[in-house]
Design a protein that fits this description.
There is one protein chain. The protein is 43% helix and 19% strand. With 270 residues, the protein is of the alpha/beta class. The protein has an 8-stranded mixed β-sheet with strand order 1-2-4-3-5-6-7-8, sandwiched between helices. Helix 3 links the parallel strand 5 and strand 6. The longest helix has 15 residues. The protein is globular.
């Protein structure tokens, strides 16, 4: 398996497809680069997809001295990758938390980007309860204890459910991501590790427009985590932006987008 290695940090990626165009792809929280395999049928003839494991997921490892992950260090890793694979320009795809990695590259190297595909991306505007589940910054010390003693956290979820304060899909998401010590540790490490990946969205829009990058945003109509109404304004501000809303939720959106793109390819369209 190929890696990019700098100062004991390892960024693992897998190669999917055999097309002439390069695409860098970043998966969502709790997943791995393997989740991009369905894209092979959809895009593999046109693109070679380099799907990365996010740190704390799959085979990637962020050395503790490199925490939290800075945009500059992520840029350095990707520049090493581009040199290794002899890639000059590339397209980007980011799903959910992977959207933060894609937006970082937009900010750091917009001149190299040909297209941007965002699938319910984190980093633009997310649900308050999603942030509680995945980036509990204001509860950092309490949450650190929650890793080994989660009773208080699950008590909070039961109260929220009892009084219908949160959509049930968000509660299921939180339960699933927190139901074991390794999962809770991954949530904590992800918050600590990725907390500096924040963006001035007006700057992102300006860079995309200045460099004439075509952007396609895929959202799920029933997604309670990253809802269409929260990020629609972003697409409206783009000169070359397209919004596609599928009748699905958050968890299977990546697979549903792959199926949609595959159908388009079979029909002869893009």
């Amino acid at each position: 398996m190929p890696y990019v290695i700098i100062n004991s940090s390892k960024l693992h990626y897998r190669v999917i497809g055999h097309g002439s165009r390069a695409m860098l792809a970043f998966h969502g929280y709790g997943q791995s680069s393997a989740y991009y395999h369905p894209m092979e049928q959809a895009l593999g003839n046109d693109y070679t997809i380099y799907a990365f494991d996010l740190f704390f997921h799959g085979r990637s490892h962020l050395y503790k001295r490199s925490m939290p992950l800075s945009k500059a260090f992520l840029q350095q890793l990707v520049e090493h990758f581009l040199e290794k694979e002899q890639i000059q320009r590339f397209s980007l795809m980011g799903f959910s938390m992977g959207g933060k990695f894609a937006l970082t590259l937009v900010e750091c190297m917009p001149e190299k980007i040909e297209e941007l595909f965002l699938i319910a991306p984190d980093g633009i505007r997310t649900s308050f309860w999603y942030n509680i589940a995945t980036y509990p910054g204001w509860l950092q010390q309490l949450f650190k204890r929650t890793v080994v003693k989660p009773d208080m956290f699950f008590g909070l979820l039961r109260m929220l459910e009892k009084y219908n304060m949160v959509h049930k899909s968000l509660l299921r998401f939180a339960h699933y991501q927190m139901d074991s010590t390794p999962k809770r540790l991954r949530v904590y490490r992800s918050w600590v590790g990725f907390r500096e990946l924040n963006f001035d969205i007006r700057k992102i829009v300006r860079l995309l427009n200045e460099h004439h990058v075509a952007v396609t945003m895929f959202l799920g109509e029933y997604d309670q985590i990253i809802a269409p109404k929260r990020v629609g304004v972003f697409v409206d501000a783009l000169d070359k932006g397209e919004l596609v809303v599928l009748k699905t939720g958050h968890s299977y959106l990546l697979q549903d987008v792959a199926a949609l793109l595959h159908r388009k390819r079979m029909q002869g369209g893009r």
